[in-house]
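Work Package 3 (structural annotation) set out to generate three-dimensional models for the target panel prioritized at the project kickoff. During this period the team completed the workflow that converts sequence records into discrete structure tokens, so that structures can be stored uniformly alongside our sequence database. As a representative example, we reproduce one entry of 89 residues exactly as it appears in the project archive.
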Amino acid sequence: MNKVNCIKLNKELEGLDRAPYPGELGKKILESVSKEAWQQWLDYQTMLINENNLNLFEESSQSYLKQQMEIYFFSEDGDVDKIDGYTPK
């Protein structure tokens, strides 16, 4: 089991087994995001998809989710788009 210093949860936790995304972004996530934080992102991403009626076959939807993922994990303020009624853990 590999450990990472999780950038999102600010503690050492179990890391992902493989890069969850292609390219440099995937490598960066693999090196600095825990399984727990990744699962939280997947839950949030599902809400973004549902609330915004995103079509994942459209490049614009894919770009939007990539942008939100980068903000979620790597932005100083982590100011992702809000979903009415959602309170982060």
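The two ends are 25 Å apart (CA to CA).
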